[in-house]
Write a structure and sequence with these properties.
The model has no long low-confidence stretch (mean pLDDT 90). The chain is α+β, with helices and mostly antiparallel strands. The radius of gyration is 23 Å and the shape is elongated. The protein has three helices and four strands. A hairpin with a 2-residue loop joins strand 2 (19-46) and strand 3 (49-73).
Length: 135
């Protein structure tokens, strides 16, 4: 499945009174993830004889992964939502993320949960803006 992107933006004021625009983008990827499993097993080799062995197999599980990226508009620039989204997407692709959530539970990371996570991150960054401006 192709990745899906979600986003939200907000205004935040730094300690010196300067107003910034913050954009948080979430990239959702889903598919099957391979996991190599090794288990102890009894292996029959002759009539009524057993030997100890290790059984290894590839277990494929459904997997969803949400990666979050951030962009903060400089106060002297004109805010453009699409530019903010593009910057955050590029940061996700480069690995400069602000969080990754991964699950094999089918009921997790639905659209409502993704938007809730993005809004929570947005609120946290708005409150702790100074921490993110220094990066």
């Amino acid at each position: 499945m192709r990745p899906k992107f979600y986003h939200a933006w907000a205004k935040a004021t730094s300690q010196d009174g300067t107003q910034h625009y913050i954009t948080v983008v979430g990239k959702l990827e889903q598919g099957k993830k391979s996991e190599l499993i090794a288990e102890n097993a009894d292996v029959p080799y002759e009539k009524n004889k057993m030997s100890k062995g290790i059984l290894t197999y590839d277990n494929k599980k459904f997997n969803r992964k949400l990666t979050l990226g951030l962009s903060i508009c400089h106060p002297h620039d004109r805010f453009d939502e699409n530019v903010g989204i593009d910057i955050a997407k590029k940061r996700i692709e480069k690995g400069d993320t602000i969080g990754v959530l991964e699950t094999s539970n089918l009921t997790m990371l639905n659209e409502d949960a993704i938007m809730a996570e993005i809004i929570v991150k947005l609120n946290y960054i708005s409150i702790h803006l100074e921490k993110y401006l220094k990066k």
